[in-house]
Amino acid sequence: MAKMWAGRTSGETNQIADDFNASISVDKRMYREDITGSMAHAAMLAKQGILTKEEADVIIDGLSGILSDLDSGALIIGTEDEDIHMFVERILTERTGAYGKKLHTARSRNDQVALDIRMYLRNVCDEDIELLKELCAVITDKAEEYEKAVMPGYTHLQRAQPILFAHQLLAYAQMFLRDIGRLSDCRKRMNVSPIGSCALAGTTYDTDRRFEAEKLSFDDIAQNSIDGVSDRDFCVEYLNAAATIMMHLSRFSEELVLWSSCEFGFITIDDAFTTGSSIMPQKKNPDMAELCRGKTGRVYGDLIALLTVLKGLPLAYNKDMQEDKEPVFDAVDTVKNCLLVFTPMLATIKVHEDRMMEAAKGGFINATDLADYLVGKGVPFRDAYKVSGRAVALCIEKALTLESLPLSDYKELDAHIDDDVYGFIDLYICVVKRISEGGTGPDSVKKQIEWVRNKISL
């Protein structure tokens, strides 16, 4: 098949080179954006008198038919064309004759692909934001369901202080809300139209780039035509946001894996999101959480791959930039698939409040509260800290908890301690006493739940 770019060269390339050069197997997913962009371009050409209204109407009707046929499956995208742009133009020309050959006036594939991927990623950002909002909604529902469940909070993966399980969940909601903010910011910067930049220098035709941008719901146009075709910052920015989303999902997945182990026993993941072993019949493996954790690496790789492609490129367009779409599309698919499986997995976990409380009691995580109790009795904090530490050592020696250590033992440690200490170091009371804004206290957690729900409703 003769190449549409034949002229300076014969247009005849080695089949191996053809296969190596082609991108249609990757960029065909942007057919909808390519056709929609072409409709707007035809309308602009007619508005400016570059095409007649009749010519534009025929082209737009032809493009509409192609889009309908692709959506319905009546038309299949093959591999004989170099890319999605050439496919659409070829089919249009087959259906409309000479009219189709006029569509590419005042544009290049360079600005066309830059337009398509911006439109595609703009929609992806919207979809990801909605998926993240759904996840945040599940987090708040779970937090409300278990708003009184006490668990050990950890630092260095060592039991540290008592917290509400809801408080731990809501920390992830904060992460995902920041992800929503990153995607929103990224979308704003990508929502700039490059079409009309042509190959790199603009065009001699009297075009109206702003009309075309407005028809495609862009906020502005690229102010420099060279930058318009060579900018892929928005792809890098999306990949950065995607990598951060995956990092947050990976951290959350790690906790679910730990919590669902026999050693922790804090939660049970629903059977629908686990698998068994081929040899060990007792096994119930948290594979979906592990896959979310594992797939994080590939999205990191997608980001590094594109940064590496772009790092040494001179202006303007270079064929290297064809390599932008594979990592972008891989990240798009990976983030979407992980969010789609993670949200219902979290929604269906069963929480074992008794096991959490048992772990909290066994970790002496109210030792700080014991020190605070002594400070309230007039003991300097550093002295109180040492008394509390000795109490923990004594409990370990006697296989007791701070709550079960006899008052006589406390008295030997420090005469300021009285029987009111037991109410002070009760684990739930320890949580209730943490009244600082944003802390783990029940009132604070309720406010956090409402705050998150308000954010995702905007």
Summarize this entry quickly:
With 458 residues, this protein is mostly helical. It is 63% helix and 5% strand.
Fraction of residues in helix: 55-70%
N to C succession of SSEs: HHHHHHHEEHEHEHHEHHEHHHHHHH
Low-confidence parts:
none
**What does the largest sheet look like?**
2 strands, antiparallel
Strand elements, count:
6
Secondary-structure content class = mainly alpha
Report the sheet-strand fraction.
Answer: under 5%
Radius of gyration equals 31 Å
Number of helices: 20
Can you give the mean pLDDT? 95
In what order do the strands lie side by side in the largest sheet?
A: 1-2
Report the end-to-end length measured between terminal Cα atoms.
52 Å
| Cα shape | elongated
Structure, explained:
With 458 residues, this protein is mainly alpha-helical. Helix content is 63%, strand content 5%. It has helices at 15-21, 24-27, 31-47, 53-72, 84-96, 98-101, 109-145, 165-190, 209-215, 225-230, 233-259, 287-310, 325-347, 353-362, 367-376, 381-398, 407-413, 421-425, 427-432, 442-457; strands at residues 150-155, 158-164, 192-193, 220-221, 267-268, 350-351. It has a two-stranded antiparallel sheet with strand order 1-2. A two-stranded parallel sheet has the order 3-4. Strands 5-6 form a two-stranded antiparallel sheet. α3 (31-47) packs across α7, α3 (31-47) crosses α9 and α15 crosses α16. The model has no long low-confidence stretch (mean pLDDT 95).
